[in-house]
Design brief:
The chain has one domain: Alpha/Beta hydrolase fold, catalytic domain (Rossmann fold, 3-Layer(aba) Sandwich). It is α/β, with parallel strands linked by helices and about 220 residues long. The protein has 8 helices and 6 strands. About 35% of the residues are buried. About 45% of the residues lie in helices and about 15% in strands.
């Protein structure tokens, strides 16, 4: 029988640069700090297991980017990479007195690169996992993001997707990330599906997804 995964780390809402964002943290202790930035349609809970593995060497903080996870939508609906980077920079200033180990996945990778480029004094190390950076090779994932950024088409696609069962959408996304979906613990799948259904009920969920996709495509150019 597989070992039950650890629970999500506790979180709190913080005011950062005029934005309220939700941040999950491991217990303080280690002197060095890590900050984790999730990808498009993701949340801070994507980092739960890695944060646990590294909790004995770094104090970890995982952000729900504005409009994602438990963070409310940003003022003015600004989902640009620059706006996200300013929020992450403000988080680093809040939680760390020294440069941090910065982790970014997908959209969070693009945001983390912007943070490291504009404020290298804040970054001790940079770890990128499938970062959403400009790529001239034709790939399904980037093409799907680009299509979702097209005016009206993005909103239509978001509406159509939300009508599909959460488990079906989840398996399609995870299928692009894992060679063997059977390696994912059933409890993690259940948690992810439950979170997706919760997101479906938020009035700004579609706008946040499409807005972040458009901010990412704008960054490509």
């Amino acid at each position: 029988m597989s070992v039950e995964p650890i629970p999500s780390w506790p979180g709190e809402l913080m005011d950062l640069e005029g934005r309220r964002v939700h941040v999950r943290s491991t217990p303080p202790g280690p002197s060095e700090t890590a900050v984790y930035v999730h990808g498009l349609a993701g949340s801070a809970t994507n980092w739960t297991d890695l944060m646990g593995e590294l909790s004995d060497v770094v104090t970890g903080h995982a952000i729900d980017l504005p409009g994602a996870g438990y963070s409310p939508e940003p003022p003015g609906g600004d989902y640009s990479i620059d706006a996200h980077a300013r929020t992450v920079t403000a988080l680093i200033d809040r939680v760390a007195g020294d440069p941090v180990h910065l982790f970014g996945n997908s959209l969070g990778g693009a945001v983390s690169v912007r943070v490291a480029a504009t404020r290298p004094d804040l970054v001790r190390s940079l770890t990128l996992i499938s970062p959403a950076l400009p790529d001239l090779l034709p790939r399904y994932g980037p093409a799907r993001v680009a299509l979702s950024a097209v005016p009206r088409l993005g909103e239509w696609a978001a509406t159509q997707l939300s009508a599909l069962p959460a488990e079906r959408r989840l398996n399609a996304t995870l299928g692009m990330c894992y060679a063997d979906l059977g390696r994912i613990h059933p409890e993690r799948l259940r948690e992810a599906a439950e979170e997706l259904r919760r997101r479906d009920g938020l009035p700004y969920a579609a706008a946040a997804l499409v807005g972040s996709a458009r901010g990412l495509v704008a960054e490509y150019f």
